[in-house]
Design a protein that fits this description.
The protein is mainly β. The chain has a single domain, classed as Domain of unknown function (DUF427) (Metal Binding Protein, Guanine Nucleotide Exchange Factor, Chain A), CATH 2.170.150.40. The chain has strands at 12-13, 22-26, 30-34, 37-42, 45-50, 53-60, 69-78, 82-91, 94-102, 116-119, 126-129, 132-133, 135-136, 145-146, 150-151. The chain has a 7-stranded antiparallel sheet, with no helix packed on it. The chain has a 4-stranded antiparallel sheet with strand order 4-3-11-12, with no helix packed on it. A two-stranded parallel ribbon has the order 1-15. β11 and β12 (132-133) form a beta hairpin. It starts with 11 loop residues before the first strand and ends in a 12-residue tail after the last strand. Mean pLDDT is 90; it is low at 1-8.
C-alpha cells in the first residue's frame, strides 16, 4: 500500500468506511460542470461510503440536466447494489461516453440510490462539494470523489485490485 495522505481536520479515513457500503444523506451543495454547462446542482445528494474508496455522490435526477444524457449500452453489477446502467453526455460538439451511472432497480438495502445519478469526476471538467474542487479517484473504473476531508490510501491505482 502507498502512504496515507496528509490528514485535514476533521478527516475521514476511507479505511474506516464499512463493507458492505453505507448510504448517507449529504446536504452540501454538489455541482457538476462540463463544457461550460452545469450538468447537476443539488443539496439533496447521498454519499456511498465503502472501505478503501473515496465517497461517491449520487444526485437526484430532478437536479440533473437529463436532456444532455442518453442511455449507454454499458451495464455493470455490484454485489451489493445490483445492476448499474451508464449514461453518455451528448451536447453541442461534445460526447462523453459513460460519464455517469445509476441503479434503476437497486437491491433493497440500497433503495436510496433509486432515482439518483453518480458522475465520474474524471470524465467532466469539474465536480465541487460546497465549492471545493473534487479530485477523481485514481484508475478508470471507480468514480470516487476525493476531497480534503478524506484520507487514503485509495483503491484504484495499478496494484490495488486485491485490496
Amino acid at each position: 500500500m502507498s502512504q496515507a495522505q496528509p490528514r485535514h481536520d476533521p478527516a475521514e479515513s476511507v479505511w474506516d468506511y464499512p463493507r458492505p457500503p453505507r448510504v448517507v444523506p449529504d446536504a452540501r451543495r454538489v455541482v457538476v460542470r462540463h463544457g461550460g454547462v452545469v450538468l447537476a446542482d443539488s443539496r439533496r445528494c447521498v454519499r456511498v461510503l465503502e472501505t478503501s474508496h473515496p465517497p461517491v455522490f449520487y444526485v437526484p435526477w430532478q437536479d440533473v440536466r437529463t436532456d444532455l444524457l442518453t442511455p449507454s449500452a454499458t451495464l455493470t453489477h455490484c454485489e451489493w447494489k445490483g445492476v448499474a446502467s451508464y449514461w453518455t453526455l451528448t451536447g453541442p460538439g461534445r460526447t462523453v461516453e459513460d460519464v455517469a451511472w445509476s441503479y434503476e432497480e437497486p437491491e433493497a438495502a440500497y433503495a436510496a440510490l433509486s432515482g439518483r445519478l453518480a458522475f465520474y469526476p474524471g470524465r467532466v471538467d469539474s465536480c465541487t462539494v460546497d465549492g471545493e474542487r473534487v479530485r477523481p479517484q485514481p484508475g478508470g473504473f471507480y468514480g470516487g470523489w476525493i476531497t480534503e476531508e478524506i484520507v487514503g490510501p485509495f483503491k484504484g491505482p495499478h496494484g490495488s485490485d486485491g485490496w
